[in-house]
């Protein structure tokens, strides 16, 4: 990266994470072990969940969550098309069919109304996303799903530290899934987590991530006598390493500082962008607060520059913005996949862009981004 280029995101990593990873390597325990267990306990406490199960990615977390619910061939799962494609793909991994629902314009999230519009007798679950850290109204969604007798899985990949009604996203969820990709606030390089209050489900998730074994490698190692493990069902290799968990523990301890900083930067964006015609920034919904994992703006139809041209102009100015959240139903992987009209999804995906936002961002960098946007708004 050249000195003057502004990236869209930089993970907040430093010497403390490097030492933690080094300590894990020097301990000799680098696969799933005691640091993973410690990270799980800390993450469960942070999110207010009874149990946390570390896995290799949020995608595998989604797959396992649907698997333990018994989702399979012939079933349908309602998902937003407005999400990273892994949300829909996880449904297909089970052999079930993702059914794309539209989203609310201001939050980019499913609502009871958009789910109900595509629900059928074959619907077996709903998979809601807290998009870009903006919390979905899970109280309304949980009430609707309870009325329909459908389980609700929450894709909270981007939402660590966001809140709904003053409680952490994921609090009280049947199953919630999380990502530790470098674009997320808490990163372990790659990695994921499932949280749940159900002890039996948590125990099964732990088995399934490790080939269906009834005794983990850590349990066998800690035993003073030989342990002959059994494989209770067909499982997967979805484990996290202790090296990743060591980094995750340091990152988790920095989360409150990260959120405070990101919300301050988002508030400054709001002030600077106010008055620029044709730009509608993302904000907190009435029911909660965002961690601002992403800060996106929606262009009105009368904005003088199209979204793709605006991205090109920003890039030429040394600013690494990104297109808005993808619409999975428009991707080649889902060509021919049936979908109802999704006008809000297509509007957000077509007309939005994600602006740079990261912990070490300076006011001068923000000023430069806003100046470029203001110039383009003048046509």
TrEMBL record:
This is Aminotransferase DegT. The active site is at residue 184. Keywords: Aminotransferase, Pyridoxal phosphate, Transferase. The modification N6-(pyridoxal phosphate)lysine is found at residue 184. It comes from Streptomyces griseoviridis. Pfam families: DegT_DnrJ_EryC1 (PF01041). InterPro entries: DegT/StrS_aminotransferase, PyrdxlP-dep_Trfase, PyrdxlP-dep_Trfase_major, PyrdxlP-dep_Trfase_small. One of its GO terms (biological process) is polysaccharide biosynthetic process. The lineage of its organism: Bacteria, Bacillati, Actinomycetota, Actinomycetes, Kitasatosporales. Signal peptide: none annotated. The keyword Protein biosynthesis does not apply. Its cofactor is pyridoxal 5'-phosphate. The keyword Ribonucleoprotein does not apply.
């Amino acid at each position: 990266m050249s000195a003057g280029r502004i990236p869209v995101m930089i993970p907040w990593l430093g010497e403390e994470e490097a030492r933690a990873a080094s300590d894990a390597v020097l301990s000799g325990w680098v696969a799933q072990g005691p640091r993973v267990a410690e990270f799980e306990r800390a993450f469960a406490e942070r999110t207010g969940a009874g149990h946390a199960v570390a896995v290799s990615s949020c995608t595998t977390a989604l797959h396992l969550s649907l698997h333990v619910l018994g989702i399979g061939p012939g079933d349908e799962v309602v998902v937003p098309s407005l999400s990273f494609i892994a949300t829909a793909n996880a449904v297909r991994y089970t052999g079930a069919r993702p059914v794309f629902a539209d989203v609310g314009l201001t939050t980019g999230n499913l609502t009871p109304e958009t789910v109900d519009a595509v629900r059928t007798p074959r619907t077996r679950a709903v998979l809601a996303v807290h998009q870009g850290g903006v919390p979905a109204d899970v109280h309304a969604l949980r009430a609707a799903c309870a009325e329909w007798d459908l389980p609700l899985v929450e894709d909270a990949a981007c939402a660590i530290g966001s809140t709904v009604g003053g409680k952490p996203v994921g609090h009280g969820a049947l199953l919630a899934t999380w990502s530790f990709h470098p674009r997320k606030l808490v990163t372990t390089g790659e990695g994921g987590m499932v949280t749940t209050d159900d002890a039996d489900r948590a125990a099964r998730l732990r088995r399934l991530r490790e080939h269906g074994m009834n005794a983990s490698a850590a349990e066998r190692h800690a035993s003073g006598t030989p342990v002959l493990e059994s494989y209770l069902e067909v499982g997967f290799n979805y484990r996290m390493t202790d090296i990743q968990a060591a980094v995750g523990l340091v990152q988790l301890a920095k989360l409150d500082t990260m959120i405070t900083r990101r919300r301050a930067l988002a508030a400054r964006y709001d002030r600077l962008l106010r008055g620029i015609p044709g730009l509608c920034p993302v904000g907190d919904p009435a029911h909660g607060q965002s961690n601002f994992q992403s800060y996106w703006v929606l262009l009105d139809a009368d904005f003088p520059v199209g979204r793709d041209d605006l991205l090109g102009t920003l890039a030429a100015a040394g600013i690494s913005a990104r297109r808005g959240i993808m619409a999975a139903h428009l991707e080649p992987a889902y060509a021919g996949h049936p979908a109802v009209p999704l006008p809000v999804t297509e509007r957000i995906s077509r007309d939005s862009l994600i602006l740079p936002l990261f912990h070490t961002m300076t006011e001068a960098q923000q000023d430069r981004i806003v100046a470029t946007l203001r110039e383009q708004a003048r046509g």
